[in-house]
Amino acid sequence: MNLPKGGIAFFDSGAGGLTVLSSCLRYFPKGVFYYYGDNARAPYGNRTEDEIYRFVKQAFDIFLSLKAQAVVIACNTATAVAVEKLRKEYSFPIVGAEPYVLPTACKGGKIFILSTRATYESVRYKKLCARAREKERETEILPFSCDGLAGAIEAHFPALDFCLSEYLPRGKPTAVVLGCTHYIFLKKRIEEFYGCPCYDGNDGIARRLCSLLIKKEEPQGKNRDGQPLSRVFWEGRPLAPVCVYKSKQKAKKRRIFAQKLRFFRIFFLGSGKTKNVKIYKQMFVSIKN
Ligand code: DGL
To answer: Which of 212, 229, 264, 285 is spaced 20 to 30 A from 206 at the CA atom?
Structure first.
């Protein structure tokens, strides 16, 4: 494969991981990134563990050939069923996506955790919920599997105006955890549906990636205010927007923070390559607006 080697790789069953990629890019002003979306075989949520593991491995072998410096499994489902096995097989650091249960549970109240069926049924997720219940005894922690929701999101892009109530459990939670990266595209609508805040783990994933790749003690250069860049990363300030581009001129035309574009090099892989580039561009435009 004729791509630059040594980038940071992202994997998802489809488009959901783009939300993770965009959160991570805020912390990395430079670098090469690969985004592998297996959209043709998405959703993974109703597949067996063996199938999911086999599909993820196909992407990981490509990351290996690209000498990826780290891999982010931007998919709760793949993390829930395969991360432990994958860590034993591959030597690059792997960051997984896990529903943001513990930090949300400590807020108290009644928490709905929405995920795919495969996540919901996984041992890893059950342990996570049990830990949260043990730690926060006063909080009501209610996991639900939203069958079909990730698939509907994949199928309806870019018009995500389908009827949400068909997929969401009824009730009056005080907070909702989005345990699938696809659901993040509907964060606002889900918040409106329940009338409460929704939480996701994307920023936590980005911070974990930083802690793996940026050695705090090494100077990372200075920003315009003379602050060390690494400090700025740690404060979580968006350093630069995310963008997909073919040439500097084309990107400039779109007026997408053109001065920063030279920093980003994202290579789309997998069966959903074309679709994901398109979605990513749309996301970027909507972020801008
Ligand atoms: N985006 C994925 C997740 O976080 C997978 C959704 C699916 O393919 O079912 O779980």
So the answer is: 285
Indicate if the pLDDT at residue 63 is higher than 90: yes
Largest CA-CA distance found in the chain, in angstroms, rounded: 56
Name the β-bridge partners of 112. 142, 176
Which contacts of 159-162 are long-range, i.e. CB under 8 A and separated by 24 or more positions? Answer: 160/185, 160/186, 160/189
Which residues, in sequence order, are bridge partners of residue 175?
111
Picking from 80, 109, 96, 84, the residue whose alpha carbon sits closest to that of residue 201 is 96
Contact residues of ligand 1, CB 6 A cut-off: 12-14, 16, 42-45, 75-77, 97, 116, 119, 150, 180-182
- Give 220-266 pLDDT, tens digit per residue: 445 455 543 432 222 223 333 344 445 555 555 554 443 344 346 88
* 75 carries an active-site annotation: yes
User: Which atom of ligand 1 lies at the shortest distance from residue 47's CA?
Assistant: 9
- Distance CA(265)–CA(287), nearest Å, equals 19
Distance CA 78, CA 261 (A): 31
pTM of the model: 0.85
85: confidence class by pLDDT, cuts 50, 70, 90: very high
Q: Residues 150-179: pLDDT tens digits? A: 999 999 988 898 999 999 999 999 999 999
Q: Which residue has the tokens 């994933």?
A: 205
Cα(181) to ligand 1 centroid in Å equals: 6
180 part of the active site:
yes
Return the best residue to mutate from 182, 183, 185, 276 for the ligand 1 pocket (most ligand atoms within 8 A of CB).
182
Cα dihedral 286→28→91→67 (10° resolution): 90
Measured distance CA(99)–CA(266) in Å, rounded: 26
